[in-house]
Amino acid sequence: MRVAFVQMNVELLNPEKNYSRAEKMVKEAVEKGSKLVVLPELFDSGYNFESRDEVEEVAGEIPDGPTTEFLVEIAKDFDVFIVAGTAEKDERGKLYNSAVLVGPVGWGYMGKYRKVHLFYREKLFFQPGDLGFRVFNIGQAKVGVMICFDWFFPESARTLALKGADIIAHPSNLVMPYAPRAMPIRALENRVYTVTANRIGEERGLRFIGKSTIASPKAEVLAMGSEDEEEVAVVDVDLSLAREKRINEMNDVFGDRRPEHYFI
Ligand code: ACM
Fold first, then answer.
1. CA-CA distance, 180 to 28, in Å (whole number)?
2. Of ligand 1's atoms, which has the minimum distance to the CA of residue 150?
3. For the chain, N or C: smaller number of CB within 10 Å?
4. Enclosing domain of residue 59
5. How far, CA to CA in Å, does 35 sit from each of 73, 163, 169, 248?
6. Which residue numbers are catalytic?
7. What is the domain count for the chain?
């Protein structure tokens, strides 16, 4: 199975422009054989909001808002599964930093995840996620979703892996330098593939680090983006490797866990 990250620039508060940029890049990933494409966190709106009003301006309901509708449409046209980050406004007006998973004809909108671990000023605008970590069956693979700063808490990836994820889709707007080094270890310790789709560019003085990363269950970096160019990376993943939790004939990374000794 082929998977891709889309590393893109995003124009703050300009969804229409960001839709067309994303559409072009998803098309490129599909032309290179990708069945699953991961876009950045808040790919439609940008990230560095100044006020709650700004978030309100761009947030939409999921699935009944314009961004989910756009994603469903391109997933159908390109016959692909897409995970993408977007600001969500629920029916009571609460805001979440969310991600949606959509698929080809017959799949459509599959579900959403609301970011559990909010980073820095996100706490001024968004509610912490209340849906837990979710794994979606896309037929060929099980895909878990987490968003950006969730990586800092190893419990996020662990929970997704224990729930059966083969691949962790990780829409991101990374600003600290650590995740490109950490994600291969998240992949290794859980024996899963990870696809971090980060963005590039700068918003109001806040710089995003690029370096989107696809990592293997053996901690290999299968693809890494540059620090400042838009790019699409497509790699083959061997799902049997992600489903094999034994690391030798006597150790199994899940079977050997000793939760009775862990401090939760
Ligand atoms: C982040 O969670 N966007 C740093």
1. 23
2. 2
3. C
4. 2-261
5. 15, 22, 13, 31
6. 41, 115, 148
7. 1
